[in-house]
Amino acid sequence: MNTTDYETSRACGAYVLVHAANGKSVTVRITNECPLTCAPGQIDLSRQAFVELADLKVGRLAITWSLVNPGSIGTIFRYKTGSSAYWCGIQVIDHRNPVTGLEVRTGSGWRRLPRTDYNYFVSADGTGCGSSIRVTDIFGEQLTISGIAVKPNVVQPTQVQFARH
What we know:
Blueprint: H1 3-6, E1 15-20, E2 25-29, H2 47-53, E3 63-68, E4 76-79, E5 88-93, E6 99-106, E7 109-112, E8 121-123, E9 133-137, E10 142-145, E11 155-157
Antiparallel strand pairs: 1-2, 1-3, 4-5, 4-11, 5-8, 6-7, 6-9, 9-10
């Protein structure tokens, strides 16, 4: 996604319905920021998504897009490679709505973790790593999950998901 709409990874993981002028559309998940310069409103589509809209020979295609809520089963968490009780990065995957924040449970309550531009929430001192996690979406809904062990680079599915909006 373009830098403006990507909002330093706030859009990462969101699903959007991309519409082409020819009437075709495709749903895609935002996974990163455009590698090249993209203007606000533009999306650099994968080959698989692009061919759903037009022949690859076209190269560039005028599109519009809108946020959608997929019917995924549960949210997945992944601790970044190198995570431990002393430092951890937590990534939220397959969430129905864009995520605005992640907190971890500490001995003194909930601690909000900063989000990196590579879409991990980081506890630089390890506080809360391996504890309960609370995730908030753009609509203010919160999911609280316990039992997510610190297992670096292992996807850990849950049975919780944000409501459709």
